[in-house]
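Thread: Phenylalanine--tRNA ligase beta subunit, structure

OP (GT): Posting the sequence first so everyone is looking at the same thing. Length is 799 residues per the record. Can we get the structure tokens written out before standup tomorrow? I want them in the notebook alongside the other entries.
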Amino acid sequence: MKLSVDWLNEFTPLSQIPFEKVLEKINTSICEIDDVEEFKLHLSSVITVKIKSLEKHPNAEKLSTTVATDGSKDYQIVTAATNVKVGDIVPLALPGTKLDGKEILDSELRGVRSQGMYCSEKELGLALESSGVLIFPNDTPLGISVRKFYLWEDTILTIDNKSITHRPDLWNHFGFARELASQLQLPLNEFPFQTDTKWESGNEGLVVEKTEHAHAYYVCSIKDVNIAPSNTKIKSRLEKCGIRSINNVVDVSNYLLLELGQPTHFFDRERLKSTTFSVSKSKEGDSFPLLDDTSPKLQKDLLLIQNGKDLVALAGVMGGKDSAVIDTTKNIVMESAVFKREDVRYTIRKTNIRTESAVRYEKGLDSYTCLPVIRRAVQLLKENGNPKIKVYEPQGFNHTESKSVTIQTNLSFLRHKLGKNISQNEVTEILNRLGFKVTNQGEELSVLVPKFRQNYDVTIPEDLVEEIGRTIGYASIQTQALSMAVETPIRNPLRELERRVKNFLALEVGFNEVYNYSFASQADSKLEAKEEHSSLKIANEMPDEHSLLRNSLFPGIIKQAKLNQDRFESVNLFELGRTYHKEGNGSELAEERRWMAILSLSKNKPNDLTAVELEFLQVRETISDLFQYLNLPKYKWEKTNRNYFHPNAGLVLSYDGIEIAELGILHTRFADDYDLKRRAILSKINMEKLVDVWEKQGRNSHFVPPSNFPQGQLDLSLLMNEKDTTESFVGLVQGMKIPELESVFVQTIFKGETVGEGKKSVTYRFRLMSYDKTFTQERFKELSDSLVDIAKKNGYSLR
């Protein structure tokens, strides 16, 4: 939003305050300023001059040599313009002026000196196209700048709209000046709302049907208007605020919008087919021409203005073209209304039409300005070329005329919320200054909110705290240490565990954490088939891909992997999040579960199964290391089948018989559904089960003093069927109770022609540790023979 400082000065004397202080107060107590700009500053050196003589250029057929005066000094100008003559008053750009990015120079044209350039309307920014030099009226004073002549000597403030979206009273010059006057303690001229207008008797037959679709709606008949250009003051102020001048009637409506923040509209009386006006809702497919030359097909329940049976406006958004004011208009009907902000917002959303009026209506205007703005409009119409108009009594209704908001509070509450010991007199003085009426009963306060702040803005005691705080300045409130007891915080074991797990995955093994929405599609909910029946549908339904609450973390993390599969060779992700399960509980609340999902994309070709299996083992080892990191060494891996894992590529991890985690390679049918080009190794950990085990056993000491003797190591390669689980032999070895055996794990798995079809070679690594003596060759051979012996006894062949 743009504000003219010159216009603001008309309502309150800002010129009495240093401009830097005004800007500081706006930024600290009212809103944010995006920009401060001197309007058309580059035209300060374009002055009005009168042509004294005009002759043909001696060396160029199409050029003329002129002498012009500003009343005290003469200038010799060479021009190609053909529409100027002696005695014309024209704009002259002096050397140093920059127009359209080019600097005007004192130079020679074909051997004749030229001390500047005459300007056209286009070059001054008055028109998109023009022919010839702009010629001013004969009574134009000489030697003044074009900025002064057109009332462009002004500073324009560009306000950040987001910072005043809750303050509809600030979306106009008078409202902003009123706020500044209260903050800077300056006098305020309230003339716009005190304009006195005498109505002609009668209403010229106009009738307004009462409806609940508007807070207030008025129309009045105005006769004998004369359509012409607006005066310089109104044209200048509209232009400075970014609005194009149209004519002296339409411009008044736009001027009122910028001055008072109350949208209005003028209809051509002769182009209306009825004298009855009503506010109604659209039917599906309704259509009529709008002012922007479009005729959109309207959806159901958009707010409309009807004249009889004809649709003449999108209420609060845009008027209709067929009833608009045109050059031949003589009689008009003025509309002043306040519509419900919810209805205007709905129209904006459904039509994608956003106008200056709609922007103000959607903030929530109060209806108290509806009638005063008509009086002000009449005054402006008379000042703007229509001194003899006849204005008849307004007709309409105001449902919220008696509305008032009173807030009950007390000094103790205000002081506590502010963090400052403010006096009762100071509170009363600040609120009175801001337009509130305060009644004191001891420390109890009854505060009547002014009408321009009562609609959605100031409604609760906390709003009064904000008003006082921003007025005294938040910087004046000293920072104080909290006065409270320092107590030992309550432990949250789940949070502690989550931090430890995330630290391990991110810092120890280099995985990247991702965050996904808690929403899912129907297809996503079917990945873990056993959970499909528990999908929880969102009541306020979004697009299909976000219509359910997720029952699995896998779809989200798979989609993240898909986005990164072509960008990085290594894609290792994890996500900590909740899933939601209704579990057939009827109207009861859904159950939440907490999971850690892990995904690692294979670096190898999907059909290189041997390499993929090795990567699978690496991820298994990572999860095993995580449990060691959490001081939970007694975990157990077992084979499992999950419909979303590849057959024979699924494991579950149990601890004391409790299933805590699962690990597998994503089934190819799901990989295809999500367009994964590489094999995905997936795992998830039930954080709620893990925290129970961690609390009970993770704090137990599993420390074993290090041995004084060196560690030993044995490798054993066995040939087994491709579908046999590798854990079977591990269980056999652990059952031998070998005292030196510290750990056993699968080192490699190999498949190929050399081992035969349907077979695989599995290499186990045994870590050995003795605490009483050094390993000898005899003991190594004894252990090796016992391992080979148990393998043969259970049908395994050595390789």
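GT: Both are above now. Quick notes for whoever picks this up: The chain has a mean pLDDT of 90. Residues 609-629 form the longest helix (21 residues).
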